[in-house]
Amino acid sequence: MSAGLPWDFEPLRTDRLRLRTMTPADLDDVLDYQGRDDVSEFLLHPARTREQVAEAITLCTAHTRLEQDGDWIEPAVELDGRVVGHMYLHLHSVENLGAEIGWTLHPDAQGRGYAREAATALLDLAFGRLGMHRVRAELDPRNDASIALCRRLGMREEARFVRDLREPRAPGGWADTGVWAILDDEWAARRADEKGLGSARRLPA
């Protein structure tokens, strides 16, 4: 097991954001983006109702500890007191020090670098405090915005599984799965490079 596990969630702060546990008080903010068809287009679930969002928040509040395979956290991304999205970190193999990262952001908050800022904080946590060796992202290859973010994070495309997922909203009822990933030493080198170049490397996501 990684020396960084178990780990109980603590809020993470970036220059502009706060990643924290969701609460029932976030319902309206979360519904504002999870209830949109354009947000759910490339997710594993359709747009959610108010009741479904409330259930999802309740589930998220119960997942705050990373210790064994299958454990996950889904922190809210808070900007100026408003939840504008959420992140996802899942331990898929403690033995092999492997994790999965994901993100969802309100369209109004896209294009300003927030997704990259939040993902960077989560990758710093994964490779730093948690001692992960490899972090992957699984996404719909039609999701150009997420692919662009993977590239900005220094992740590489490792696989594409063709029509491996039943998805009624996709053409023909099947969707592909793309796999992107980055290793701990690659992330460390990238972060060292970014710090050396300062704000010149802070590009919007």
Note down, in words, how this protein is organized:
There is one protein chain. The protein contains six helices and eleven strands. Helix content is 30%, strand content 30%. The protein has one domain (7-201): 3-Layer(aba) Sandwich (Aminopeptidase). Strands 2, 3, 5, 6, 7, 8, 9, 10 and 11 form a nine-stranded mixed beta sheet that branches. A two-stranded antiparallel ribbon has the order 1-4. By secondary structure, it is an alpha+beta fold. The protein is globular and about 40 Å long.
Q: Could you describe the largest sheet, including whether it forms a barrel?
A: 9 strands, mixed
Structural class call reads alpha+beta
Helix content: 25-40%
Percent in strands:
25-35%
**Pattern of helices and strands:** EEEHHHEEEEEHEHEEH
CATH fold call: Aminopeptidase
Q: What is the average of the pLDDT values? A: 94
CATH homologous superfamily assignment: Gcn5-related N-acetyltransferase (GNAT)
Anisotropy-based shape:
globular
In whole angstroms, the N-to-C terminal distance is 33 Å
In angstroms, what is the radius of gyration? 17 Å
User: Which stretches are poorly predicted, pLDDT < 50 over at least 5 residues?
Assistant: 198-205
Number of helices: 6
Short descriptors:
GNAT_dom; 30% strand; alpha+beta; N-acetyltransferase; disordered C terminus; Acyl_CoA_acyltransferase; 205 residues
